[in-house]
Amino acid sequence: MSFYRDFNDKIAIEAWNGERRQPYETIGVKRLSPTVGAEISGVDLSKEVSDVQFAEIRRALDENLAIVFRDQDISREHHKRFGLRFGKSLHRHELAATRFSHDGPFDPEFLSWKTGRDSRFTAGDGWHPDVSCDPSPIAVSLLRVTKTPPLGGDTAFANMYLAYEFLSDPIKSLLDGLTAIHDGSLAWTAGYGAKPDPGKTYPQSEHPVVATHPRTGRKFLYVNASFTSHIVQLTRRESDALLQFLFRHVEGQLALQTRVHWQPHSLLVWDNWASQHHAVWDYYPEERWGERVSVVTGEAPQARLDLSVAAE
C-alpha cells in the first residue's frame, strides 16, 4: 500500500519541526507529538512561580500550544493564581451558574462539570476552542480533571497554525479577508440543551476566518464546528460547503493532532486561539469530573497585525 501526503503538508511539518527552539534552563519540556503538545517538569504550582520560570512556561505554550503539568497537588486558589499569570482577568462562563462546585463554595470564575452514567452529553465533546462566540474570546484555558476514569477520557488537541498551512494556496487566497459569525446558541442550545435566562441571549461575534496570533505573528485557522454558524461574505450554500470542508479538514488530519492522557494531579494549559480541543467521551459508564479557569486579555482576533508590535 502506498501513502500520499500533500506537498503543502510536508512543507508545513518540515518547517514546524525545523524551527530552531532555544533550550530551557528552568523547566523540562518533553514534546508529546511532532506538531502539538508537551509535558512540563521541574515546576511546583503550589508555590509562586518566578518570573524567569514563567517566561519559559509561556514560551513552551507558544511553541507547543498545549502543555501539561504532572504531580501538581494544588488547591483552587493555586489554580486561579497560576491562571492570572497569563492575563489580568478570569473568564466568567455563561453556563457557570448552571453548574456546581466540586470543592468549596460556588465560584463563577470556575466552570465545573461531572460526566457519568446518567449524562446526556459531556462538556467539550467536539472539536472547538472555548467560547469563540465572545467578542474577546478566551486566550488561555487551564483545566484540572478532579476525578479520572480508570481508562480513557483523553483530551485531544489540533494545531490551527498547521491547519492553515496544510491548505493549498488557492484556498488560502479564498479565505483571506473572509469573516465568520460565532454563535453561542449553537454550542449551548443545540449542543447542551441549555436555554438563556429570560430576556438574555447568548453571545454572538464576528471574527476573521484566518487570524494572526498576537504573540507569535503566525496565521491560524479560526472556524470551528461548535460555534461557527456561517461566513458573512458568502451565500448560505457556499458558506455551508466551505465550512464543512474546513471542519472535516481539522477532524481528519491526524498529523495536526495529539491526545493528552489524564493522570491524577495534572493541570492542562492550552492556547485557546491557535488550537482546538476535543474531550474524548470513551469511558461510559465511568465518571469524569473537571473544572477549569480561563483567561481573557481584552483582545479580539485580527486578520493582520503590526508584527513589530506582536513580537514585543
From TrEMBL:
Pfam families the UniProt entry points to: TauD
InterPro entries referenced in this protein's UniProt entry, alphabetically: AtsK-like, TauD-like_sf, TauD/TfdA-like
Gene3D superfamilies tied to this protein: Clavaminate synthase-like
GO biological process, one term: sulfur compound metabolic process
Domain of life: Bacteria
GO cellular component: cytoplasm
GO molecular function (one): taurine dioxygenase activity
All residue ranges annotated as the TauD/TfdA-like domain in the record: 29-293
Keywords from the named record: Dioxygenase, Iron, Metal-binding, Oxidoreductase
Annotated family: Belongs to the TfdA dioxygenase family.
Protein name: TauD/TfdA family dioxygenase
Taxonomic source organism: Bradyrhizobium sediminis
